[in-house]
């Protein structure tokens, strides 16, 4: 069983390379690290089996897909409605991520929307109408400095 707290330098390099380009072939990684394709494949499978790597994904350019409004919402809810509101909002295709936060019973949510009218509709038809919503604070992104795809080593 892999020690989940300590990755050896080879596994760390494999993860860094896959983080930069998850489509990089095992052969190319092996070439860079001076290991065989089979050795890399076994290491990646081990990282997956031990749930270090959860999945391989892509990042879409939201603007090019017509989603030009990027907004973060702090949705304060009555504690007894937190689960229900969180589940309802997480099912919305505009919602990129949603987390329940400590402190006041609040949900921190990121959504990508087509335009200002879509933002207004999202607020009134998708958030304000939900039972238990007490307050919503909305902040729109004006500039992105970094967008993560998960933990980086």
UniProtKB/TrEMBL annotation:
Keywords: DNA-binding, Transcription, Transcription regulation. Gene3D superfamilies: 3.30.70.920, Winged helix-like DNA-binding domain superfamily/Winged helix DNA-binding domain. Residues 7-68 form the HTH asnC-type domain. This is HTH asnC-type domain-containing protein. It comes from Paenibacillus allorhizoplanae.
């Amino acid at each position: 069983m892999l020690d989940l707290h300590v990755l050896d330098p080879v596994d760390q390099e494999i993860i860094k390379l896959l983080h930069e380009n998850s489509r990089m072939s095992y052969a190319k990684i092996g070439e860079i690290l001076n290991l065989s394709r089979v050795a890399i494949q076994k290491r990646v499978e081990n990282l997956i089996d031990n749930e270090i790597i959860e999945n391989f994904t892509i990042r879409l350019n939201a603007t090019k897909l017509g989603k030009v409004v990027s907004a973060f919402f702090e949705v304060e809810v009555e504690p007894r409605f937190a689960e229900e509101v969180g589940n309802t909002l997480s099912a919305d295709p505009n919602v990129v991520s949603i987390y329940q936060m400590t402190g006041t019973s609040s949900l921190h949510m990121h959504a990508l929307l087509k335009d200002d009218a879509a933002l207004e509709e999202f607020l009134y038809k998708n958030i304000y109408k939900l039972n238990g919503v007490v307050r919503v604070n909305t902040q729109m992104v004006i500039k992105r400095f970094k967008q993560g795809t998960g933990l980086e080593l």
